[in-house]
């Protein structure tokens, strides 16, 4: 499955 | 972190350094929209409310603090510094914040991934960031003389989101990340808004002419 997108961007 | 993401963050950081240099060394904010700068403060405050709650990395936390601190200090200089504030083009910087803030907030209430305070504020910050440059672009269009620093500042600010688009494509295909429509589409809009500016910026650079936007 695809990686869960975390809000690790700015 | 991939190279596109890093390039995006660095151009963003560089744009802020350039603007702070203009303000602190040249003691001037001519050609800079206070409206846009105030919108960025709102963008960062609403996006980084999770700063105290969620830890991703040292890099992330530092960058968030830098973006918050610098955006607030830029607004402070433009409003209160006794020399800088006199260079502010108040009469041409007339775009109303509320016309951007209100629709973005309503949209964030309607279209979000989860109806929670943090999530709605985060979504609102993305929508608002996408359009926050508009008062600045209007001001540039009304300016007869755009100095190099201001032109480069806006160019770097546009390049930042363009690199993020590449970063999202990379993350989706190479790092196998999930689809994220809200940041992707608002980021795409944000970059598209710069298209016209990019065109004239590159043209003036190629012809070694002074940057001027058609009214």
Automatic annotation (TrEMBL), chain B:
This is ER lumen protein-retaining receptor. It is a multi-pass membrane protein. Residues 1-25 form the signal peptide. The chain crosses the membrane at residues 58-77, 98-115, 121-140, 152-170, 182-202. Keywords: Endoplasmic reticulum, ER-Golgi transport, Membrane, Protein transport, Receptor, Signal, Transmembrane, Transmembrane helix, Transport. InterPro entries: ER_ret_rcpt. One of its GO terms (cellular component) is endoplasmic reticulum membrane.
